[in-house]
Fold each of these.
Amino acid sequence: MGEGSVQQAHVHAPPEGFIRKYVFSLDHKVIGKQYFALALVAVFTGMILSWLMRIHMVWPNTKFPGLELLSKVGAPGGIMTPEYYLSLLTMHGTLMVFFVLTNAPFAAFGNYFLPIQIGAEDMAFPRFNMMSFWTTFLAWFVLMLAFVIPDGPPIAGWTEYAPLSAVGKDAGPGMAWGASLWGLSIAIFCIASLLGALNFIATTLDLRAKGMTLMRMPICTWAWFITSCIALLAFAVLLPACILLILDRHAGTSFFIPGGLVISDRLQPHSGGSPLLWQHLFWFFGHPEVYIAILPSIGIVSHILINSMRKPLLSSKVIIYSMMSIGFLSYMVWGHHMFLSGMNPMSALAFSFPTLTITIPATVMTLIWLGSLYGANIQINSASLFALGFISMFVAGGVSGFFLAQPAIDIYLHATYFVVGHFHMVMGVASLFGVFAATYFWFPKMTGRFMNEGLGKLHFWITFVGTYCIFMPFHYLGLIGNVRRYQSFVDDYMAPYIPLHKFITISALITGAAQLIFLYNLIYSRFKGKLAPDNPWNATSLEWSIPSPPPWNNFGGKHPVVYHDPYQYGVKGSKGDFVMQDSPEQVIVSGD
Amino acid sequence: MISSIASTASVQARSSLGMDRASRSGIWVGIFAITMSFVAFTSALFVRQGTTDWGHLILPSVLYVNTVVLLFSSATFEISRRTLFTGQMIQPGTARRGIGWLMLTLVLGLAFCLGQYLAWQNLRAQGIYLATNPNSSFFYVLTSIHVLHLLAGIVALVRLIGCLIASHATFRRSLFDNTAIYWHFLGVLWVYLLLLCRLKL
């Protein structure tokens, strides 16, 4: 690894004027905040969509005042049609997976903190960085257009399975222009993500400060770096898939549409295409996407826990190697999403084995967290609570993965709420807990003010309990055979479980409403929060060595030199029980 | 004072080196991503060829001429590099010759694009369009996406020539090298695509 790389002086001039400072900014910190803001808009939109779906599911004829303004066809008189339920389902999944779970933990916090944590003044390619945010914004805008066009959003789900996603209007409402907008939006998103990943990789490899060897990078920097490598491969495959899908839809090609296909009583003018091809291409992206969502949160949570425990993890290196293993294995398991799609049992076995293997590094990480927590005098605050909550979600949601990885069990559970419970907990909520932890932890650095602790803890407890109330019953519903994607459950055999669904819906409403506490805290604290010193958590990594909020060029034109690994806690330093990475003090006890 | 100047010079040298290294990493990472996307297209082709409507496409012969043109453009790019970077500084005379070779590279790149257009016209004249059969679909998709990447290379080449004309004395070699790497990659990619089309379509 040598002595770390050579970093550059400021790569762009100080920003001047409102547009350059806040809109088309080249500053990685502003771009990080722009990603965060976009993710915030997307997550509240996605959450409201889930509320509408849950209410409709248990009270199917509920009138939503104003919904008819959004779609006269989808909600005549304010009552949601079954097809519009599927439209909302599609938009909920797409917004959450792409614009929240990819943007918030990776693009937002990675953009803001990766350059600072390695001692750089900006990303390697600031113009690419700006371009990748605005391209992402364009992708979001194109997707949201689906709400306002007469056709409405597509009904094919966030996976847009072919052939229904490829044939156009015959496949139902939203499948004419709505599905085209979806394909275009995701193709644009792929380009943005590729630009972003390229920037993260080049920055990490080449702009590290003197002394910042790879193994001296904080765990979260490693997580963002590994995630970039995964994203580079994943989005490079989804982009061609989207191009082929768009061509099938608009140019008459037959990549994904088989011959002799009759939809809505019309013989489709295509031949020979393979619907399974779409699934292969999509899931080759789709499964690594799970780790694009979760790895940054793993890194963030590890980073925060170490600070809260005031001692290093049992082994930071093993966490890093585990993340690498997960990244590598993530490309060998896509077929486990297709056990039910018609697969040779030997192929299923070949995908099942690496899927089960992934549980090894995941378990190793969990044991390291738990082993490190054992006997630790952890400082409890909003950030550490969400970090602990992350572990809880990661374990509770991850355990069900053991079952789903096995074809014989997955065949029974695949189309049920068991899967919905699994991925919402382990990919969705766990990742969001990482984002919440990151927000409470780094807010003082980003703004110079603390977030309100009381509101933060209230937010945590309602969200933590609420999440379990929503998603644990999903597993139970799945085990009794409750199929997913249905807009309501009125059949007799489901009648005994309607009260449970109502309980879930009420829990979702309360948990969702608790997010308004977070939003209020975020806005209030930005302007009225208690002033924070530059290093309020007595942390060791480089971002805490500079003023809060950081100046435009991060280190004020100086070039930091790194002397230590990032987690020198529990040692005797001149400032207390820690030694900062850029402190030339001698350290006797090494962290790892 | 002297040490301060030396320190500033050292920082600037480090800055320049850091930028160069990052640009080099960036170009290789970008090439990796483009390769991966063509791997995805290739995988799609292999899956799709297993179906009943897979036929055979006779490639327009102009493609072979285009291949020679593109490979020759890589050679002229290399001649330009060897002309420009013989000493520590680029002299006005060598700059003119180097720019001349780059101009020839640009012309050859544009000629390749024109040649690809002629190939498409040739197929259209035979009634073979994008959606005619899966073979033609893959041919149009692979060749047009390659041309899109080449157009990006042409933009980079124009920028390179512009920078050289503006100031050859302060010209950053890394810009040249990175553009050259990308250009050569597109040549190699095209040879691969031609072989793929010849053997599989």
Amino acid sequence: MRSAFIKALVELAERDPRIVLIVGDLGFGLVEPFAARFPSRFINAGVAEQNMTGIAAGMALSGAVVFTYSIANFPTLRCLEQIRNDVCYHNANVKIVSVGAGLAYGALGASHHSTEDIAVMRTLPNMTVVSPADPLQAEMATQAIAAASGPAYLRLGRSEEPVVHEGPVAFRVGKAIQVVNGDDATLIATGAMVHAAVQAARALMRSGGIHARVLSMHTIKPLDESAIVSAMQETAAIVTIEEHSITGGLGSAVAEVLAERSTRPVPFKRLALPSEFVSTVGSQSHLKDMYSLSVRGVVDATLGVLERAGLIGLVRSTDQACLLRGSE
Amino acid sequence: MNTTADMLIDVLQDLTAFARAIRTDVLHMVHRAKSSHIGSCFSIAEILAVLYGRILNVDPMRPYKHDRDRFILSKGHACAALYSALATRGFFPRDWLDEFYQDGSNLPGHAAHTVPGVEVSTGSLGHGLSIACGMALVGKRESEPFRVFTLLSDGECDEGSVWEAILFAGHHRLNNLVAIVDANKIQSLGRVNEVLNLEPLCEKWRACRWSVREIDGHNVRELETTLANVPFEPEAPTCVIAKTVKGRGVSFMQDELLWHYRSPNDQEFADALSELKAAV
């Protein structure tokens, strides 16, 4: 996703001289094409994220379109008050980009796990929060936030995320993309978990004839409430899937809509990370498996809500579960 | 505040009178609002008078004109003094000052960009200099004529973000940036040199490649001469350490920590007002 981002940014900067990239001394092997092409519009602020963000606000208030870049929690939590007061309060045209969503930096440890950022960023007034699913969405998200005025947060995976969209896709901030059609249950996923959700939907179809709808909820704020309401009305149950803490992220955002808008009980499950620091050393895939953020985990969660919805019975018997898991 | 246009013109021509008018406004505002930070406002009265009376290229009729000098009050808690200066310069009606800090008013208790003439909102210390760096960087890269001035408190220099910005400005030779430190030597819970000793402060800024001068922050002539001659060096940002006295102008408030917080009661208000009047 990060390569798609920088490619898109270079292309945008060719057309728009207002675009500036400011990094917090990170981006080795990534930002060089931008720096080489636009030396006067590339700034390394040093290991100083608070100043980086304040500078970005000052530049934006003077007419620039500023992208700040770093990894994990450094461009978000480290400088949260600068984002709140300097960027959001002034509705400054600053786009915050972080690479390493969720557990992408798995074995680097909890300092590098970006697991509360969606929750924190979506509380900020004026902030748009975008979490693309794959390289194509990352590219289109970069274009979309550059085109819109005001603060945005772009949450990117690291690299080599699987492709969700093989062909062109309509990407609009605040508008979910229905990746798989279905009317039994709805899987609402964000970031790289969309790919797992699609795989899970296929497994459910193959093994149980279950038609699961998959929504790529690439924008957490503003949230596509109508897609959620449609899911609530047209399908029996909803599962949210995110590589983020269970507190305050996509699942919470969807739950808020369901709680206010539903006219009947909707079996609902948030598949997310527990609110705890990872105490094991592990790669991203190891840790995600550990926390059921896997195709198998999505399948199990979906069967669970469908069972609660009364749509299926006994599907969680060992044989059935094995069958479904075997298709992973 | 009841002030005639003629009086305002006099005030703008006489910087000492302008500073006194700022203190008088602030005294009324803080007393009426029962708000804090009068000492922090009094220590910057001359600095603001010189900036808004002589130095800043700003136009109340066109507050957002492209080539305006930018001024950021990084010590946003002293906004009552800034509001007074802006009202005197005509950025908004002076009767707004009467409603400072009141329910539904236009003037909140920390500087807000929603007020005409206030460049950016502040209130949390350690933000202003970074924003100023961003503005100065754009100005320099696009060869814009404007300068960026920011006023910090000395206690504010405890904030790590201030030093991030100091390093940045020195490295990038932001010669269109001026940082003024209101060195009144008192911060929230005590004397600056007892809470977290900043000395030698001038040398610290110099070590970060700033051109630094230390002056008397209550001497309008010295302030004017100094600020009219920035940058001191062609390729360096400018730092003015303005030695000031917290609560300056009212004998019982001067150099007293209490007046970071306390709002004058009716008797103290009357006493302070008569001292300010007697100083004419």
